[in-house]
């Protein structure tokens, strides 16, 4: 019998992914307004300005206030990218198109996601989302048929904390009435998911579908998690 009763999951690049890649997606939407940019340049500057910011988290906001704060946070990231690359007319119109596109259309679900979630439910495991994401996650998960399997969502924008902060994981555990030694966390980011969850004593796995490494903590598919913990 397993010692675990709860599976905590990251969302982006764990359950679903940007189907055309970030730079290409930004640039495809941009072609309505300008042909002067390269996808690779956008990707590089996205990493620069995204990683240099305080995490996407707000304290005590909900409803329209939360939506406004989330959108403003993302606007500042994209604005900095194109200030660096060279600004263009109709930037705000472009941002509206881009923001709406990432509400669902930009994403694709991994083939193993739904079979994995179904198997977890069959085994009566609690499933929680622990993700650095904004409230658009609910539309994405609804669209892919993920929501029906999830017992609790903890997202950074609502929680006041973001990964790799220990407080974020504690908040997720508290929200779902879960305990550390009975919970497994799975995510795609070595620092934000594997290291951060491991530091507070959670069992953690790094999902890397392309990895050839043989480390015990790396899984090449979500279904491998079941074999390791169930």
Task: Give an overview of the whole structure.
It is a single chain. 45% of the residues lie in helices and 14% in strands. It is an alpha/beta fold. It has two domains: 6-17 and 107-229, Rossmann fold; 20-101. The strands form two sheets. Strands 5-4-1-6-7-8 form a six-stranded parallel sheet, with helices on both faces. A two-stranded antiparallel sheet has the order 2-3. Helix 1 (22-30) crosses helix 2 and helix 2 (39-51) crosses helix 3. The longest helix is centred in the first third of the chain and has 23 residues, at 63-85. The protein is globular and about 60 Å long. The termini are close together.
Q: What is the CATH third-level topology name of the largest domain?
A: Rossmann fold
Please count the beta strands (DSSP E, at least 2 residues each): 8
Number of helices: 10
Q: Between the first and last Cα atoms, what is the distance in angstroms?
A: 7 Å
| Known CATH architecture of the largest domain | 3-Layer(aba) Sandwich
- Please give the domain count: 2
Strand content: 5-15%
Helix content: 40-55%
Order of helices and strands: EEHHHHEHEHEHHEHEEH
Mean pLDDT: 97
What spatial form do the alpha-carbon principal axes imply?
A: globular
Unreliable runs: none
Rounded radius of gyration (Å): 18 Å
Structural class: alpha/beta
In CATH, the homologous superfamily of the largest domain goes by the name HAD superfamily/HAD-like
């Amino acid at each position: 019998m397993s010692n675990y009763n709860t599976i905590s999951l990251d969302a982006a690049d764990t359950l679903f992914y940007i189907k055309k890649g970030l730079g290409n997606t930004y640039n495809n939407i941009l072609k309505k307004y300008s042909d002067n940019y390269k996808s690779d340049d956008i990707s590089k500057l996205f990493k620069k300005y995204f990683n240099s910011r305080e995490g996407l988290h707000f304290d005590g906001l909900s409803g329209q206030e939360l939506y406004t704060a989330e959108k403003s946070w993302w606007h500042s990231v994209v604005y900095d990218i194109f200030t660096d690359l060279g600004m263009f007319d109709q930037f705000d119109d472009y941002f509206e198109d881009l923001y709406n596109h990432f509400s669902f259309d930009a994403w694709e679900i991994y083939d193993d996601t739904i079979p994995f979630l179904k198997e977890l439910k069959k085994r009566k495991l609690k499933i929680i989302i622990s993700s650095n994401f904004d409230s658009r996650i609910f539309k994405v998960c609804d669209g892919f048929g993920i929501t029906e399997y999830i017992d609790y969502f903890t997202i950074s924008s609502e929680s006041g904390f973001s990964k790799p902060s220990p407080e974020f994981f504690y908040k997720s555990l508290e929200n779902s009435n879960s305990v550390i030694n009975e919970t497994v966390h799975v995510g795609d980011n070595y620092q934000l998911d594997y290291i951060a969850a491991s530091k507070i004593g959670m069992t953690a796995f790094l999902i890397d579908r392309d990895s050839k490494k043989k480390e015990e903590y790396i899984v090449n598919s979500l279904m491998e998690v079941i074999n390791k913990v169930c």
